[in-house]
Amino acid sequence: MQSKKIRLLIFGSGFIAENFIQHFSGLYGPEFSVKVLYHRHKIKTNYPFLEQIPFNIENLSAILDDFTPHFAMCVHGNSFVSSSINVRESMENNVLKTMSFLETLSRSGARKYLRKILVVGSASEYGKYYHDPIKEDFPLHATSLYGLSKICLFNASMYYFERGLPIVHVRQFNTVGPRQREVFVLPSFCKQIAETEKGIKPPSITVGDLNQERDFIDIRDTCRAYSLLLESGENGNVYNVASGKYISIRELLNRLLTQSKHKNKVKIIENPQLLTQENSLSNRLHADISKIQNLGFSLKYTLKDTIESTLEFWRGHV
Q1: Which of 100, 105, 99, 96 is nearest to 65 (CA)?
Q2: Which CATH fold would you assign to the domain 6-176+217-245?
Q3: Which of 87, 116, 149, 204 could disulfide-link 267, Cβ–Cβ 3.0 to 4.6 Å?
Q4: CATH 3.90.25.10 location in the chain
Q5: Alpha helix (H) ranges present in the chain?
Q6: Which pTM was predicted?
Q7: Which DSSP state fits 138?
Q8: Pairing mode, if any, of strands 247-248 and 213-214?
Q9: What is the pLDDT of residues 151-206, one digit of tens each?
Q10: So what's the architecture of 185-213+246-284+301-315 in CATH?
């Protein structure tokens, strides 16, 4: 007899997946079980009702028949825009593997027990610079290979929705917080500050384009948004997940420096190699979040909360 626990199947094992498991386990405790299909790296967690399985499309049907998940999340891919420079690799990681996953779901009996599938896309699908907050019905305009791959993922989402899968597509803006890889801007700054405080490196921070403006959301609020979408998101719809506010990278750095023990001594070193043409085409990414707010979503964490918790994490991990 199948367990009555809430059962979640996650395709992908990165930053969002790890935090969402922690969030969901906090909500449901032992009434929640999860399987993660990973490509290269396992999630680091001690949650007892988690099973991690290397992704193999040949075994997926058997996993589905055995587990019969209530919910599925597709978070597989390489979310670091600057590293998506190879066409074949970018499309394989960000689109084709997820399409294979969805195709298997579509051909299986999963529709009988799956209540919702979240497919996580990106704000890079919008790409182009807009003065106004970006709504879900704005035109899609890739300004990077990564953005192009995510537009393809969105089209795949809608294709499989038309095929009968209960899909909700997320356009995720910059989600940040502790344990995020240091290749991303906030953890990169935090790690460098922590290293200067401990004397590991001289009091300096290497930066890219400080004029970029981004909409940052705390990973804990991202997880709360995903829970809400699994519960109340309308199938076949797209939802921005963001804070609805934007800040320049320069201002983000200035706020971080006020938290540094060496705030008046840190040298800023600009690295031209970190400046890309893609960034210049999408100088500002700022979300309109009224659609998810209409479902009852509101922020719990401020950017100040996020900065402090991320900096404290790196102070303990350098």
Answers
A1: 105
A2: Rossmann fold (3.40.50)
A3: 204
A4: 185-213+246-284+301-315
A5: 15-28, 60-67, 87-91, 97-107, 145-162, 185-197, 219-232, 249-259, 277-281, 290-293, 303-315
A6: 0.93
A7: S
A8: antiparallel
A9: 999 999 999 999 999 999 999 999 999 999 998 999 999 999 999 999 999 988 99
A10: Alpha-Beta Complex (3.90)
